[in-house]
Amino acid sequence: MATQSRHKIAVFASGYGSNFEVITRAAQSGEIPADVVLMVCDKPSARVCSLADAMGVEKFVFSAKDYPTKSDYEREIVRRCRECGIELICLAGYMRIVGEELLNAYKGRIINIHPSLLPAFAGARAIEQAMEYGVKVYGATIHYVDETLDGGKIIAQQAIEYEGDNIEELTALIHAAEYKLYIKTLQKLLK
Ligand code: GRF
Q: What is the 68 CA–ligand 1 centroid distance (Å)?
């Protein structure tokens, strides 16, 4: 990580964008020493796209089907990130496996948040699967991204005890924990 006081980060998302919102607000208020200078999204109709506009963050929105291969759209993502001087990529609900092109360009500088205590419940539907399993301690994990699905080295985790059976209530608890964990982790990583 560069030693300058404010870092340039990108947030990648595919949907609602609440983590994007929290990270961007923390950057704008100076809670983290960073500027969110780019939001990357693979779903043109996602809420996070209008959120980026409302929050004054430049965005790159693409449809994978418009590119012959993953390498082609990732090359374009890397080009945009470099153009913006991005130092760290924060995945927050980005529903695509990161490929070689992006991993090689940003080796060790891509992190992700996942709504479980990894390595348990990797992949989509982590919260539902954990509840179906009868888990009593849920959680959230921030990890480095590698070529595996939610499998890179763990940076930080937060446990959440919950014994109820209300998925909405649990999801809200996990999301609230995610927001705090992401900010705390970025504060540490960007120091
Ligand atoms: C979060 O729960 C995150 O852990 C997972 O996707 C969700 C994204 O939510 N990877 P949002 O788009 O940030 O609201």
A: 27
* pLDDT tens readout for residues 40-52: 999 999 999 999 9
User: Is residue 41 assigned to a domain?
Assistant: yes
Residues framing ligand 1 (Cβ under 6 A): 13, 15-20, 92-93, 113-115, 175, 178
Catalytic residues: 114
- Helix axis angle, 167-189 relative to 126-133, nearest 10°? 120
Q: Which atom of ligand 1 is nearest to the CA of 14?
A: 12
Residue 92 CA, ligand 1 centroid: distance in Å: 5
Atom of ligand 1 nearest to the CA of 22: 13
Taking the model in full, what pTM does it have?
0.96
CATH number for the domain including 74?
3.40.50.170
Look at residues 82, 127, 118, 126 and name the one whose alpha carbon lies nearest to residue 102: 82
- Based on the structure, what is the number of domains in the chain? 1
In a domain, 1, yes or no: no
Nearest CA to ligand 1 atom 14: 18
Q: Is residue 185 domain-resident?
A: yes
